[in-house]
Amino acid sequence: MRPEVRVKAVSSVLLLGGAVALGVASRVRWARVDATDGMTPMRTFDVKGADWSPWLAPLALVLLAAIALVWALRGWALRALAVLLAVCAVVTAIPAISMLTSPVNTDYAARAIELAPRYRVLLTTVNQWAPWIVLVGAILVAAGAVFALRSASGGGMSTKYRSPAARREELERKVFAEHERRQRREAAAGDREAAGGDAEPTGSERILWDSLDTGVDPTE
User: Fold this and answer.
1) Crossing angle of the two packed helices 130-150 and 56-72, in degrees rounded to 10
2) Which whole-number Å values give the CA distances from 123 to 8, 59, 105, 109, 141, in the listed order?
3) How far apart are CA 23 and CA 15, in angstroms?
4) What is the C-alpha to C-alpha distance for residues 29 and 43, in angstroms, rounded to an integer?
5) CB burial class (10 A; 0-12, 13-18, 19+) of residue 184?
6) pTM of the prediction?
7) How many whole angstroms separate alpha carbon 99 and alpha carbon 132?
C-alpha cells in the first residue's frame, strides 16, 4: 500500500469514528428536567443530544461525506477540506466543554425540549458522560483532519479512477525512474563497461515499453 493511500485510510477511519461518536451523542440523554404544572404530579423530561445540540446528527452525515472527499481530492483542495474539518472539530467541542465546566442552564434545557410554559422546572440534572462522547468525536475528527492534511500532497483517487493519459504519464515516470536506478547500481558495482553503456531494459521494462509504444495501457 502506497504511503499516501495508507495515510488517507487512517484519516477515513478516524473521520468514521468521529461520525459514529457524534451520531451516538445525538441519541443519548444529556440532561433530565423535573417539572410540574401545579395540577398534576411532577413529570420528568429527557433532553437528548439532538435536543441540546441539533447539529450533531447532520454533522455526522457531513463527516461521512467528507470521507469520500478525502479520497477524491488532492493538493490545495484537500488542504482546504482538512482545515474545514479541524474547524468543525473545534466548534463541536465548545458546547461539550461548556456543559462540563459551567453550571447547568435550566432555561436552555427547557427551551431545548420546548417545555410548555405552564410547567415550572424544579430540577435539572446533567448526564456528565454524554458530553465526553462529543469530545471523543471532536478529537477523532481533528486527528482525521491532520492525516488528511498530511496526505494533501498525495495522488487523490486510486489509479483506476484516473484518466488514461494520467496513468500513461505516471507509468512512463516509473519506467524511467527504474531504468535510471538500475544504471546507477551497475555503475556503482563497476559494471558500466560490461553493460556496454546504456543497459538493455529488463524483461519487465521491455514489456512496459512495448505496451506504451503500441498504445496499450498496461495498468488496466
Assistant:
1) 20
2) 47, 30, 11, 11, 34
3) 12
4) 16
5) exposed
6) 0.67
7) 10
Residue among 18, 49, 7 nearest 142 (CA): 18
Q: Which three cell numbers stand for residue 207?
A: 514489456
Looking at beta carbons, which pairs linking 127-132 to residues 24 or more positions away fall under 8 Å? Answer: 127/28, 127/29, 127/30, 127/31, 127/32, 128/100, 130/25, 130/28, 130/29, 130/30, 130/49, 131/30, 131/95, 131/96, 131/97, 131/99, 131/100, 132/96, 132/100
Q: Which three cell numbers stand for residue 201?
A: 531494459
> How far apart are alpha carbons 220 and 206 in whole angstroms?
17
Grid cell 563497461 is found at 193
3-state SS track over 73-141 = CCHHHHHHHHHHHHHHHHHHHHHHHHHHHCCCCHHHHHHHCCCCCCCEEEEEEECCCHHHHHHHHHHHH
User: Using CB atoms within 10 A of its CB, is residue 35 exposed (0-12), middle (13-18) or buried (19+)?
Assistant: buried
Q: Would you write out the chain's pLDDT as a tens digit for each of its 220 residues?
A: 677 889 999 999 999 999 999 999 999 999 999 999 888 889 999 999 999 989 999 999 999 999 999 999 888 999 999 999 999 999 999 888 988 888 888 899 999 999 999 999 999 998 889 999 999 999 999 999 999 999 876 544 444 445 566 566 666 677 667 767 777 776 666 655 555 555 555 555 555 665 555 555 555 5
Output the nine-digit C-alpha cell for 173. 515516470
